[in-house]
Amino acid sequence: MMDILAVIISLVINIIVLSPALWLSGRLLVGGQKAKFIDSIMIIVIGLVVGAIVGALIIGWLASIIMIIVWLALIKHFFDCGWLKALLIAIITLIIFVIIAAVLSLVGIGLFALII
User: Fold this and answer.
1) How many domains, the chain?
2) Which of 5, 20, 98, 103 is deepest in the core (most CB within 10 A)?
3) What is the pLDDT of residues 8-32, one digit of tens each?
4) Is the dihedral of CA 58, 61, 62, 65 positive or negative?
């Protein structure tokens, strides 16, 4: 029961955090007609579910390689682009995510300092 709850919480947090970053990078590279926000949510949901299944069945580098291919295939399919553009979208999404995480951590540290 706790595993299912953990998966649901992880899914919700990942949707909230990763979907906007994926959507922004998709809009930047393929345009608003191809990169819709609901598509980025679907990429995240399907990717996390497939990732959980692959992670349960396969371990190590093989699972990582399979998941990279799955994520790129999902981006390619939903954003209607080629493999290289899907890779570029994934890289830009990672950069946007790191920037958002850094800003949120600074805000969190700032709020924590204000409380103390």
Assistant:
1) 1
2) 20
3) 887 888 888 899 999 999 999 998 8
4) positive
